[in-house]
Amino acid sequence: EAGVTQFPSHSVIEKGQTVTLRCDPISGHDNLYWYRRVMGKEIKFLLHFVKESKQDESGMPNNRFLAERTGGTYSTLKVQPAELEDSGVYFCASSLSGIQETQYFGPGTRLLVL
Amino acid sequence: AQSVTQPDIHITVSEGASLELRCNYSYGATPYLFWYVQSPGQGLQLLLKYFSGDTLVQGIKGFEAEFKRSQSSFNLRKPSVHWSDAAEYFCAVADNNNDMRFGAGTRLTVKP
Question: Distance (Å, rounded) from C-alpha A11 to C-alpha A109?
């Protein structure tokens, strides 16, 4: 069974540009999560989808970030326009339904904004 | 809201020595606790988790963790460290919606 995949693995963009990150969860996982780790700091929760609905987006830093999960399958996270402080590693995770279900993480997308 | 503290940013141990990584959490209800490991270039891999029951939890790769409610702690242990254990370790706590909060991580270096 394929794990959580993320694309691209790395992205280097200039301040002001737009970047779209993609996450493909494990097939059948209704729950999809986005996290971000800024260099040397903790992994921070961004948002949580249940199927195509946003269950919790309290961690989204500002309105430059837009997450979508059309059809309840893969998800995209768009940053527009990107700022220097957006640099970091963006992780996606997915899980089955239920509070005791393990979240399986993707390898992350390393974003560098210059 | 839940939060996690990992007091040690970096730990170095000799191969074969024992290991304990500290984790303290803050959460008003019954916590769901996790330890994840991230090796270089890899995603996060679940080592073990605690939801209820026996407070001593066994995980993969010979790791275990003990939940101590009175101390709000969930420390990770291994009796004998292998060079391949060098990685970054994250403690996390989840709420009833499975929304997870992570600590800042502890980087483990293993000396030969």
Answer: 7
